[in-house]
Recover the amino acids of this structure.
Protein backbone atom coordinates (compact mmCIF):
# COMPACT_ATOMS: atom_id res chain seq x y z
CA UNK A 1 0.00 0.00 0.00
CA UNK A 2 1.38 3.42 -0.92
CA UNK A 3 0.95 6.48 1.23
CA UNK A 4 0.81 9.90 -0.38
CA UNK A 5 3.72 12.14 0.61
CA UNK A 6 3.12 15.81 1.01
CA UNK A 7 6.02 17.46 -0.83
CA UNK A 8 5.98 20.40 1.59
CA UNK A 9 6.30 18.21 4.69
CA UNK A 10 8.99 15.78 3.46
CA UNK A 11 11.95 18.24 3.73
CA UNK A 12 10.95 19.14 7.29
CA UNK A 13 10.63 15.47 8.27
CA UNK A 14 14.06 14.69 6.77
CA UNK A 15 15.66 17.67 8.54
CA UNK A 16 14.12 16.61 11.86
CA UNK A 17 15.33 13.03 11.38
CA UNK A 18 18.88 14.29 10.68
CA UNK A 19 18.87 16.20 13.97
CA UNK A 20 17.28 13.48 16.09
CA UNK A 21 19.14 10.44 14.78
CA UNK A 22 22.43 9.97 16.61
CA UNK A 23 25.71 9.99 14.72
CA UNK A 24 27.50 6.65 14.61
CA UNK A 25 29.73 6.06 17.65
CA UNK A 26 32.99 7.88 17.17
CA UNK A 27 31.74 9.86 14.17
CA UNK A 28 33.92 12.82 13.32
CA UNK A 29 32.25 16.18 12.80
CA UNK A 30 32.83 18.16 9.64
CA UNK A 31 35.36 20.97 9.97
CA UNK A 32 33.71 24.40 10.21
CA UNK A 33 36.91 26.42 9.85
CA UNK A 34 39.97 26.16 7.66
CA UNK A 35 41.23 22.57 7.40
CA UNK A 36 44.75 22.40 8.83
CA UNK A 37 45.22 18.62 9.04
CA UNK A 38 44.17 15.73 6.84
CA UNK A 39 44.62 12.14 8.01
CA UNK A 40 44.53 9.32 5.46
CA UNK A 41 44.79 5.57 5.98
CA UNK A 42 43.97 2.30 4.31
CA UNK A 43 41.63 1.72 7.24
CA UNK A 44 39.99 4.84 8.61
CA UNK A 45 36.95 4.21 10.83
CA UNK A 46 35.77 7.82 11.11
CA UNK A 47 36.24 9.64 7.81
CA UNK A 48 34.41 12.94 7.49
CA UNK A 49 35.36 14.25 4.02
CA UNK A 50 35.80 12.02 0.95
CA UNK A 51 37.30 9.07 2.84
CA UNK A 52 39.73 11.23 4.84
CA UNK A 53 39.63 12.67 8.35
CA UNK A 54 39.94 16.43 8.15
CA UNK A 55 40.42 18.71 11.14
CA UNK A 56 40.22 22.43 11.73
CA UNK A 57 41.93 24.07 14.70
CA UNK A 58 38.79 24.04 16.87
CA UNK A 59 38.32 20.30 16.34
CA UNK A 60 41.93 19.56 17.28
CA UNK A 61 41.77 21.69 20.40
CA UNK A 62 38.79 19.73 21.76
CA UNK A 63 40.79 16.47 21.78
CA UNK A 64 42.70 15.16 24.78
CA UNK A 65 46.02 16.91 24.87
CA UNK A 66 48.85 18.12 27.01
CA UNK A 67 50.94 21.12 27.89
CA UNK A 68 54.69 20.77 28.16
CA UNK A 69 57.33 23.33 29.03
CA UNK A 70 60.63 22.37 27.46
CA UNK A 71 63.72 23.31 25.55
CA UNK A 72 64.06 22.19 21.95
CA UNK A 73 66.78 22.59 19.33
CA UNK A 74 64.46 24.95 17.41
CA UNK A 75 63.49 27.39 20.15
CA UNK A 76 65.37 29.68 22.53
CA UNK A 77 65.11 28.75 26.20
CA UNK A 78 62.12 26.95 27.65
CA UNK A 79 58.84 27.40 25.82
CA UNK A 80 55.39 26.03 26.55
CA UNK A 81 53.84 23.87 23.84
CA UNK A 82 50.22 22.76 23.97
CA UNK A 83 47.99 20.74 21.69
CA UNK A 84 46.27 17.41 21.22
CA UNK A 85 48.13 14.19 21.81
CA UNK A 86 49.00 12.53 18.51
CA UNK A 87 47.18 9.38 19.68
CA UNK A 88 44.02 11.44 20.34
CA UNK A 89 44.03 12.70 16.76
CA UNK A 90 44.56 9.21 15.36
CA UNK A 91 41.83 7.81 17.63
CA UNK A 92 39.39 10.54 16.54
CA UNK A 93 40.07 9.60 12.92
CA UNK A 94 39.85 5.89 13.69
CA UNK A 95 43.20 5.40 11.97
CA UNK A 96 44.84 1.96 12.09
CA UNK A 97 48.36 1.07 11.03
CA UNK A 98 51.95 0.54 12.07
CA UNK A 99 53.65 3.67 10.80
CA UNK A 100 52.96 7.30 10.01
CA UNK A 101 54.27 9.55 7.29
CA UNK A 102 54.05 13.08 8.63
CA UNK A 103 54.03 15.64 5.81
CA UNK A 104 54.83 19.36 6.07
CA UNK A 105 53.52 22.24 3.96
CA UNK A 106 56.79 22.21 1.97
CA UNK A 107 56.31 18.43 1.37
CA UNK A 108 59.10 17.44 3.78
CA UNK A 109 58.20 13.99 5.13
CA UNK A 110 59.26 12.01 8.17
CA UNK A 111 58.49 8.40 8.96
CA UNK A 112 57.23 7.97 12.51
CA UNK A 113 56.51 4.57 14.09
CA UNK A 114 52.98 4.22 15.46
CA UNK A 115 54.56 3.42 18.85
CA UNK A 116 55.65 7.06 19.11
CA UNK A 117 51.96 7.97 19.20
CA UNK A 118 50.78 5.14 21.43
CA UNK A 119 53.57 4.90 24.03
CA UNK A 120 54.82 8.49 24.24
CA UNK A 121 52.89 11.68 25.04
CA UNK A 122 53.76 13.05 21.62
CA UNK A 123 51.63 16.06 20.73
CA UNK A 124 50.60 18.01 17.68
CA UNK A 125 51.33 21.41 19.15
CA UNK A 126 48.87 24.09 18.08
CA UNK A 127 50.13 26.73 20.50
CA UNK A 128 53.44 28.03 21.74
CA UNK A 129 53.42 30.01 24.99
CA UNK A 130 49.62 30.08 24.75
CA UNK A 131 49.47 31.65 21.28
CA UNK A 132 48.36 29.86 18.10
CA UNK A 133 51.35 28.83 16.02
CA UNK A 134 51.61 30.64 12.71
CA UNK A 135 53.29 29.13 9.65
CA UNK A 136 56.16 31.54 10.28
CA UNK A 137 56.58 30.06 13.79
CA UNK A 138 56.48 26.38 12.76
CA UNK A 139 52.69 26.14 12.75
CA UNK A 140 49.93 25.52 12.35
CA UNK A 141 50.98 22.11 13.73
CA UNK A 142 54.31 20.93 15.12
CA UNK A 143 54.99 17.32 16.16
CA UNK A 144 56.59 17.76 19.59
CA UNK A 145 58.06 14.87 21.52
CA UNK A 146 57.81 14.89 25.34
CA UNK A 147 61.37 16.11 25.87
CA UNK A 148 60.19 17.48 29.23
CA UNK A 149 59.17 14.00 30.40
CA UNK A 150 62.08 11.95 29.09
CA UNK A 151 65.56 13.40 28.54
CA UNK A 152 66.53 10.25 26.57
CA UNK A 153 64.35 11.52 23.70
CA UNK A 154 66.54 14.60 23.26
CA UNK A 155 68.58 13.19 20.36
CA UNK A 156 68.82 13.23 16.58
CA UNK A 157 66.53 10.21 16.17
CA UNK A 158 63.55 12.12 17.61
CA UNK A 159 64.64 15.51 16.28
CA UNK A 160 64.39 14.13 12.73
CA UNK A 161 60.79 13.02 13.40
CA UNK A 162 59.78 16.41 14.86
CA UNK A 163 58.05 17.83 11.80
CA UNK A 164 56.69 21.37 11.84
CA UNK A 165 54.22 23.10 9.52
CA UNK A 166 52.36 19.78 9.32
CA UNK A 167 49.57 19.49 6.75
CA UNK A 168 48.86 15.76 6.68
CA UNK A 169 49.49 12.39 8.25
CA UNK A 170 49.41 9.24 6.14
CA UNK A 171 48.91 6.08 8.18
CA UNK A 172 50.40 2.91 6.65
CA UNK A 173 49.77 -0.73 7.51
Amino acid sequence: MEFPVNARILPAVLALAAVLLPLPAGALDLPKGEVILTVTATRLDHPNVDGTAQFDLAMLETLAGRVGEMETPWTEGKVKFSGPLLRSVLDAAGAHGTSLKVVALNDYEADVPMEDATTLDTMLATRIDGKPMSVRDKGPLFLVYPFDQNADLFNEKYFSRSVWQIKSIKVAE
Observations:
- The first strand starts at residue 35 and ends at 41.
- The domain at 26-172 is CATH 3.90.420.10 (Sulfite Oxidase; Chain A, domain 2).
- Residues 10-25 have pLDDT under 50 and may be disordered.
- The CA atoms of residues 55 and 156 lie 29 Å apart.
